[in-house]
Amino acid sequence: VNLLTVARDLRRRRAREREHLFVAEGVRAVEELLTSPLSIQGVLTSPPLETVPRGAALRRALDEAAAERGFAVRTVSEAEFRSAAETESPQGVLAIAGIPERSFEKCETDPRHRMLVLDGVQDPGNVGTMLRTAAALGVATTVALPGTVDLWNAKVVRGAMGAHFRHLAFHSTLDALLAHLEQHDIALWATTASGAPFETFAVPDRLAIAVGNEGAGVSPTLLQHASATVSLPIRHVESLNVAVATGIFLYELRV
Amino acid sequence: VNLLTVARDLRRRRAREREHLFVAEGVRAVEELLTSPLSIQGVLTSPPLETVPRGAALRRALDEAAAERGFAVRTVSEAEFRSAAETESPQGVLAIAGIPERSFEKCETDPRHRMLVLDGVQDPGNVGTMLRTAAALGVATTVALPGTVDLWNAKVVRGAMGAHFRHLAFHSTLDALLAHLEQHDIALWATTASGAPFETFAVPDRLAIAVGNEGAGVSPTLLQHASATVSLPIRHVESLNVAVATGIFLYELRV
Fold first, then answer.
1. pLDDT higher than threshold 90 for residue A237
2. Facing residue for A240 by CB, picked from B136, B166, B237
3. By C-alpha distance, which of B145, B56, B40 is closest to B96?
4. ipTM of the assembly?
5. B-side interface with A, Cβ within 8 Å?
6. pTM of the entire structure?
7. Tally of CB atoms within 10 A around B108
């Protein structure tokens, strides 16, 4: 296989879904990938990588891992690399890796746990930040409902800084989510800019917290299934940034 | 004056500082500006603005305000507008307004209050989000220290969604900040990824919370003057996004 062609192709969501592959770009993301349980299919580098010590170290680590695990590391020209890169100033390293198979069967069913539900969140920077926050604050699972940006989009992967290489994040339909919540007796809260302050509700031991689209909020269908619609007490502005609001909710409601 | 030339010039920080003017671009930002106490110097529009109902309504409101307050509204071609715009898909409206004169003399000295200190935060999206969060969570003042992106940068203004048209946010030196804190008996906390959990400290009635650069954190000089170095309890990842961490601190420590 031509890694360059594959990497270029994987910029499209449809190709990622078909091939069950994604691209992690940049020194930091590839470092995280290398120490994660995810399966690396191949790596592309370009000469600028080895001009910085951290890049040169990563190159050596990649060569070792490639020999052990049997994937290819191929060096291409800067121009070729740029044709596959998603960043404006590429650091000269990207890895193609397998999207892990994840589903509700793999979710923990601890007596107390938290789930994050992304209901149509569209900005990849926000979603990357939210995955990083969810992992940091002990959320067990993040579920992305239809209308949410692809979790394996290059910008999401970069923004998450490796969080979802380990954090159990995956796409699901609303029906599958609702079935899982019912089966495991997990409460569903919807967050909005105008609901009741969340402090007025007793906090369930098992709780899924849904956050919605940057403009429209949580969908009416999800709202119907939520046992509470909660908000943060804010003044002066219409709303908080969705990633900031999510961070506050996850911190306040952490187990 | 040629508004187009002025708007183009104001894309440079130096020009904004010299002229004490900034640009608010887009329907939402100009709507917020129009209802704020800030002084509008002139408005540029292009034909696409009036193709959407909200844009057409804004145009009418601008014409009324222009007649009352005596500023110019000038319509230019799409190409000309684009030459001054900072967004990739301009909505066809930008306003030039005066940067308000703000300083520590205008800060409130309530028995209990919160201040946010930005110590070298460089991403304009993060700073815009943080100003919006600070305003929403009742922070009295946000102070930007040297090394922080210009608060009146177009991306910061857009990200803040009008927050700093009212929220008392301004640039200051560290010396001026420290003098103000001492004079008004305001404690200074520095936030880091590796300090003690903030819950282990008694929370002062008057508190300034400093957050640092995305990579390097709070500066060593500021750290020396902080009475506590505090962090959030996180796992699995190195750090939270600075805007998310700031949101959690400001929420937890709100008065």
1. no
2. B136
3. B40
4. 0.92
5. 125, 129, 132-133, 135-138, 161-163, 166-167, 232, 234-238, 240-241, 243-248, 251-252
6. 0.93
7. 10
